[in-house]
Amino acid sequence: MAESAARALAPPPSPAAVLELAKPITWFPPMWAFGCGAVSAGGALERDWAVVALGVLLAGPLLCATSQAINDWFDRHVDAINEPQRPIPSGRIAGRWGLYIALAGSLLSMGVAAALGPWVLLWASIGLLLAWAYSAPPVRLKRNGWWGNAAVGLSYEGLAWVSGASVIAAAVPDARILVVALLYSAGAHGIMTLNDFKSMAGDRRMGVGSLPVRLGPEAAARVACLTMALPQAAVVAMLLLWGAPTHAAVVAMLLAVQLAMMGHFLRRPRERALWYSALGVNFFVLGMLAAAFALRGIVGAV
Question: What does 56-98 look like in DSSP terms, one character per residue?
Answer without folding.
Answer: HHIIIIIIIHHHHHHHHHHTHHHHHHH-TTSTTTTTSS-TTHH
